[in-house]
Write a structure and sequence with these properties.
The chain is mainly alpha-helical. Helix content is 60%, strand content 8%. Strands 1-2-3 form a 3-stranded parallel β-sheet, with helices on both faces.
């Protein structure tokens, strides 16, 4: 298995049992565990449960020689992303790991986008935020001016400043930015 993953471009660390894995430092960066259900000492399922208790949030794929439904359900409940039955073909082994890394990359991208949206909106003044909330809610400038007790021209100036500070070109883009920052 090590050679399969290394040929596919992954860095691999192997452990003879669950106890050695638990004693080792956590892997830096993105990682995926491949856990055999039958391990010396602690079983793969017990390892998954222990990882959950320790809040060790690394995606895992479980491999087993006995593919019964009960074990698969237990593994998934314990946090396994996928469950593979032996004998394992190269594609069957690589497919769930590629899916895990794609999911990790997607989550990282979303987190980066949210952080950027928060950063952009943090540059707005309190009044600009109030105007933005009403603009995003679909209120026309005339109504916003009355609600906030300011002139319609001031509302337009705040809208222009919001667009400039956030770099968006339209109200729908501003709404997407606000939703992304709130999410």
């Amino acid at each position: 298995m090590r050679r399969i993953f290394e040929r596919a471009g992954y860095r691999v660390r192997c452990f003879g049992d669950a106890e050695r894995f638990l004693a080792a430092p956590r892997p830096a960066g993105r990682a995926c565990l491949i856990i055999d259900e039958k391990l010396p000492g602690m079983s793969g399922l017990e390892l998954l449960k222990k990882l959950n208790v320790r809040h060790y949030n690394v995606p895992a794929v479980m491999i087993t020689g006995r593919g019964d439904v009960r074990l698969a359900v237990q593994a998934m409940r314990a946090g396994a992303q996928d469950f593979i039955e032996k004998p394992v073909q190269e594609d069957d082994l690589l497919r769930p790991v590629k899916a895990v890394f794609a999911q990790i990359a997607g989550a990282a991208t979303q987190a980066e986008q949210k952080a950027e949206a928060v950063r952009l909106l943090s540059g707005l003044t309190e009044r600009q935020r109030a105007v933005m909330e009403l603009v995003v809610a679909g209120q026309p400038s005339k109504n916003i001016a009355m609600d906030l007790g300011i002139s319609q021209r001031t509302v337009e100036n705040h809208r222009a400043a919001m667009m400039r500070k956030t770099g968006v070109k339209s109200i729908p883009a501003l709404a997407r930015l606000a939703i992304l920052a709130a999410g």
